[in-house]
């Protein structure tokens, strides 16, 4: 076994690898850029070595700097995590030449499978069913159009060295192929240093299902079941789960057998993932193989009870897979592993779901994840690379954390995920927790009727918090009333200017939940609070009991209403609270009856007219401005291309306009809402 390993990565995956290494008694070495000087993975590791500027191309993608860090630290092996150099044959070969062990597959397997074009050729040769497409490198956008015309639309334009949704576009006609080819090539070069792309048929209403494989250096290869990753936005996975609600045991074994056959064909000897696109009829086609650890590996770990990072380290050290993991002799099965229970993972991103998921950067002024551990048969796990006070920058992937829950069945795992999301408090940046929480309440998701088009189909106009129903509104009004009473009591105790102790609940209140009045009365009953909801005449229409240990200042209200546990994120406002729960986001003002009457007379403020300007919707780098002053631009034409967190975003004209003045230029780094140009 190794005594010291270096992690050639950053963020949550670096922290994840360090945890396993520490448990195994292996010392760790972190590498970091200028932007990560005070990062969590640097703090966790036994040693840390600086490798360059914030840009990945000058730090985390520099093979010579990683090898130099190994020599300086005495690290015997390198774990690449995912992304960056994890699927580079050149990196594995360079480590081999330096007599440093690569904790990943052999260079031949990386070359055969890591390249998306070569992997499809190898899969076809191994008898694995593949999606129709053009497996050669495409020279330019016009060749891409000709190929797409032959294949038939829609098509997927995909980076050969890609992954994580980068360098990937779906096109429904020739115009979109031309645009998508340029964007995919540019993103691929920026993210992977390789601008090659290929084109394949896009399967309509598909599901994304992948098989986890693990092989050793003694010829053993097994699969560890499947993960479903169909909930995607812009080809980026958002929710993953294991197992898949689509598959039956026969289909699972068939997919697993193909994945194992492909891995054996290239002598695969580490953890890897064979990805398939599946039809709703359970037909499936090979997409690609990722020759590395996947972002979503925790769901597999929770349903198998295995530590994939540990398996990778042991395999790299030459150990064979444990006998209990292998299929029994004489069995036709391709694994000896049994799946137990169900796991669901949500990717928490620094992005604004209310502004078309635009990236968000800044400092985490509050970062309070739910409590991890096992309770009442429910497991909560949070893989993260940040702490409260850390900064989210423009240089790297916007993922903050991966929140994972495990239970005996899918329904319970989803419910646990929803509760955990509601208890996850983040402030200082925008984040997608409200959207993730809404997904956990979505009927179609709960029913398992998934496809990669789920988000586009269910949220065609983008995400907006749904309006609360009657019972939901009453529950949120009750929480707001309790918060108001407890806050009043705290103020009273601090000031010393009012007599009495205990909660300062007035007998009658009006709670305006997004402008809808809820009349109620509140009475204290020890730890429980009884709340009566009244009609306009003051008669009680129904009552509930609320219990909570919340105190002013806490970012999450946790308690029970009529015995049902729930968590609500709270942000104080003057005379009220902003509440977020289960995909709902409301503003609740708590008034006396007279205050409510006066509040109804207050004028409504309107925002300033911004129709004459183009604002930068996210912090980012201006990649290009394909317009000039005085140019007439038609609706739908591109005004600017902004790069943020390794993704390029096209800003298009919403209507016909004339460019009056350019206030930015290519290469500028802009803050959110900075003015890019003015219109006449």
Automatic annotation (TrEMBL):
It is an enzyme of class 6 (ligase). Residues 120-317 form the ATP-grasp domain. Residues 1-460 form the Biotin carboxylation domain. Keywords: ATP-binding, Biotin, Ligase, Lipid degradation, Lipid metabolism, Magnesium, Manganese, Metal-binding, Nucleotide-binding. InterPro entries: ATP-grasp, BC-like_N, Biotin_BS, Biotin_carboxylase_complex, Biotin_carboxylation_dom, Biotin_COase_C, Biotin_lipoyl, CPAse_ATP-bd. The keyword Cell wall biogenesis/degradation does not apply. It catalyses: propanoyl-CoA + hydrogencarbonate + ATP = (S)-methylmalonyl-CoA + ADP + phosphate + H(+). GO terms for molecular function: ATP binding; metal ion binding; propionyl-CoA carboxylase activity. Its EC number is 6.4.1.3. One of its GO terms (biological process) is lipid catabolic process. Pathway: Metabolic intermediate metabolism; propanoyl-CoA degradation; succinyl-CoA from propanoyl-CoA: step 1/3. Signal peptide: none annotated. Its cofactor is biotin. Residues 603-680 form the Lipoyl-binding domain. SMART domains: Biotin_carb_C. The keyword Lipid metabolism applies. This is propionyl-CoA carboxylase. It comes from Candidatus Raskinella chloraquaticus.
